[in-house]
Amino acid sequence: MMRKGLARTVVRLMGYKMVGEVPRTGILVGAPHTSNWDFITMLLVMWHGGEHPRVLVKKQLFKGPLGWVLKAFGGVPLDRDNASTVVKDLVAEAGTGKPFRLIIAAEGTRGKGEYWKSGFLRLSKETGLPITLAFFDPPTKTMGFGPTFHASDDVRADMDIVRAFFADKRGIKPENATEPRLREESA
Question: Helix (H) and strand (E) counts for the chain?
Answer without folding.
Answer: 7, 7
